[in-house]
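Entries read chain and fold; for instance:
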Amino acid sequence: MAIVGLLYVGAVLFINGLLLIGRVDPKAAAPLNLFVGALQVVTPTYLIIAANGDPALIAAAAGIYLFGFTYLYVGIGLLANLDTTGVGWFSLFVAIVALGFSYVNFQAVENRPFGVIWLYWAFLWALFFVVLGLKREALTQYTGWVTIIQSWVTAAIPAMLIFTGRWTNPNETALALAIFGVVVFLALLPLARRRRAPEEVVPTPTPTVPAATS
């Protein structure tokens, strides 16, 4: 069930990445954030009830709430035109917790691909904190493109591979994800130095963050 949510997380990340680079209007992005946010709250609630007290299953489901609450926060913020500092500082909290979930996936459940994916998400949330919480708007374009790439690499593609039974070779997959992330996100760094011309400046929109699985 969590994998179904992961697929739609790919969709909302894609839309919010386009929002950050100025291709989607903030209010137009709000409904999808609310839809996926609601899904990411209902899903872990069901999984926890069905876990029958199993600590491992409960822990796996608990992380999904981080993302569900964030999507709802983002959707409401976009519709109400709220200041972005709230979701920005919440993103710092989630980025730190994501490191813990990465460790759990590496050590406790030995799911190395998702251990790497949690590191991707920790990096993305850290960017959201800098852009939205600290208002470093020079990083908006960079963060937008990182979000778009992660929508496919950490969500949509893994979900489809898992659905079709092709999510195999975990060690090789984890290594490929790690190398890809380092190379691509370093290659995008020039975007962090690029500023819009004055007539192109737009208010920093509120993005969202990925959903959890293990």
